[in-house]
Amino acid sequence: MPREKYKDKADGLYKQVDTYNLVENLETCLACGKCVGNCPVASLSPSYNPRQIISDVLNGDAERWLNSEEIWRCFWCAGCATVCPNDIQFPLLMMQLRYRAVEHNYGLKYIMPFKRFALRAREDGLTFAPSEKGREKIKRYRSNLGATPWPEISDRAKAEYKELFDLTGATEYLNNTSDEAEKPVILKYTEGRIISD
Amino acid sequence: MTEQRVVSPEELFPEVPASIFLFRSCTGSMEYPGTENAIKEVMNKLGVNIVMDPDQTCCSGYLLTCSAHKPEVSLAVTARNLAIVEKQNLDTYVFCNGCYGYNRELSHIMKHNPAYMQMANDVIAKQGYKYEGKTEIHHVQELWYRLKDEIASKVVNPLQGLKVGVHYGCHYLAQQYHILDDGGYPTFHEEIIEAIGGTPVFYKERQLCCGYSVGRGITHKEVMVQPHLYKKFKSAKEAGVELITTCCPGCNVGLDREQPNLTKRYEEEFNIPVIDISQLIGIALGVPLKKLGFEANTVPLNGIINRLGLERGESSL
Fold first, then answer.
1. What does the pLDDT profile of chain B (317 residues) look like in tens digits?
2. What is the pTM assigned to this prediction?
3. Which of A93, A143, A193, B66 shows the smallest number of beta carbons within 10 Å?
4. Terminal Cα distance for chain A, rounded
């Protein structure tokens, strides 16, 4: 009997997820499970299962992951990609699964803190530059080292960094990000063994 | 698939470069500025000239992978930063695994997808830049490994068997090609530790992620990150680790800043200081302690300093 192919029933979901064409070899997944075995998140929270998620994407089953809490737990450590025998870049799939979830107003609470960081980074040319009070501590530590009080970043760098956000649509995207229409996410892959705290 | 995965340091650097472009890390220049300074001090002792450029910006990768924005801006930022390096005919040396992974990954995407290269170049052309994909992206630690014997010959404060548990950080090992060691079971940090007189400890969870975890330390701290880190520190403590080294200031945040919270939640003391491997090399090569910036650390290094007999002279914290 010929092996059933994912694309027989996938209804194009895979391409709707991978809009950036960054994970073009997803269909070569052997379902070997090495990714799951090397995943620190799966070891604590087994309902997060990269192999299952790949299978659901290839099968056209968006119901499972789209409003799931699980996709927001990935640490992005890329342990899955490190061990994948077929070099599947699962983190690049995860990135796009989250974009799709956000488009449907799921998981907004998990990106809102980073909207704030990103809008600030856009001004500073640096990520995580703290508020004024925190800056004093950085300046003191750096001065004690004999370094310039603030990282040597030019006004030109800051202006051009900011401009790149504007030119690529990132500023607009960030300004439009809001959690007003937030819909709840839930643990969807409940067949996993959940370890209680 | 035909590209070589693991390369020897001699293949990676047939010649030790006279000058390198050091890519500024946001975390490494603000949260733990001692990491950046340690690299400058050690490179100076090894006779490698460091070039930095104030026009270089953040790599923007962290916010990309936190889903704050789409990839276009990060592709353009990467192209712009690397174009600045290329103009100086240098290779790029990164000391944050985040910057390393993002620069490598995003430049790989551009080099293998002409449409993305075009898109990024169209944007940065408006600012007068052009990225050609010439500059190689290395991690600073690769150069430490290449110069291991020279480092060993310059040791003035041998580590006296200090039990060091290393932390490689995921985003170096996750690179599939042209890295120094087998991502599954690397040992090159341990070899460096041995070369400067320390005793490397292979604790069970040494390859477990730092828990900085690209934003999950903010969104999922209680539910995921703390239980995860507890596992890591428990295994390090059981193996007798006295000090953890990282090669990424982001990992340092995850491992150092969170320890008091773990102690509070799990009612267990760890008190394992976490520093960059470059800072430890700095100690061994006699860089004055105040140049290494340990005052930024949450878990203090006093025990280590005393243990190594460095408390006197100009070596005060």
1. 467 888 999 999 999 999 999 999 999 999 999 999 999 999 999 999 999 999 999 999 999 999 999 999 999 999 999 999 999 999 999 999 999 999 999 999 999 999 999 999 999 999 999 999 999 999 999 999 999 999 999 999 999 999 999 999 999 988 878 888 877 889 999 999 999 999 999 999 999 999 888 899 999 999 999 999 999 999 999 999 999 999 999 999 999 999 999 999 999 999 999 999 999 999 999 999 999 999 999 999 999 999 999 864 444 44
2. 0.94
3. A193
4. 46
Helix ranges restricted to H, chain A:
7-10, 13-17, 34-37, 40-44, 50-58, 62-66, 79-83, 90-103, 112-124, 132-145, 155-167, 170-176
* CB interface of A with B, residues 124-163, below 8 Å: 124-130, 138, 141-142, 144-147, 151-154, 156-158, 160-161, 163
For chain B, the C-alpha Rg in angstroms (whole number) is 19
How long, in residues, is chain B?
A: 317
Chain A residues 86-105 with CB within 8 Å of chain B:
87, 91, 95, 98-99, 102
Output the CA–CA distances (angstroms, integers) from residue A47 to A41, A53, A68, A91, A92, in the order listed: 9, 10, 10, 17, 20
Question: Helix, strand, coil % (nearest 5) of chain A?
Answer: 55, 0, 45
User: What sign does the CA torsion over B191, B196, B199, B201 have?
Assistant: negative
Cα separation, B12 vs A131, in Å, equals 41
Q: 10 Å Cβ neighbour count for A155?
A: 10
DSSP codes of every residue in B167-204 = ---HHHHT--SSBSS-TTS--HHHHHHHHTT-EE---T
Q: What contacts B21, CB < 8 A, 6 or more positions away?
A: B51, B52, B53, B85, B88, B90, B91, B92, B93, B135
* Domains of chain A, start order: 7-107 (1.10.1060.10), 112-176 (no CATH)
Structure tokens at B22: 């050091």
A26 vs B: CB within 8 A: no
Q: Which residues of B touch A114 (CB under 8 A)?
A: 63, 66-68, 215, 218
Q: Do A167 and B123 touch (CB under 8 A)?
A: yes
The structural domains of chain B, ordered by start, are 9-140 (1.20.1050.140), 148-307 (3.40.50.11810)
Q: Give the CA distances from residue B192 to residues A161, A174, B195, B301, in Å, rounded to whole numbers and listed in that order.
A: 37, 43, 5, 20
Cα gap B5→B180, rounded to integer Å: 9
Cβ neighbours for B250, distance < 8 A, ≥ 6 positions apart: B27, B62, B96, B97, B98, B169, B210, B212
Residues of B in contact with A156 (CB under 8 A): 55
The token pair that represents A137 in the structure block:
């501590």
Which residue in A74, A117, A145 is closest to B291 by CB distance?
A: A145
Q: How many CB pairs under 8 A join A and B?
A: 196
Residue that is written with structure tokens 């799931």 in the block:
A68
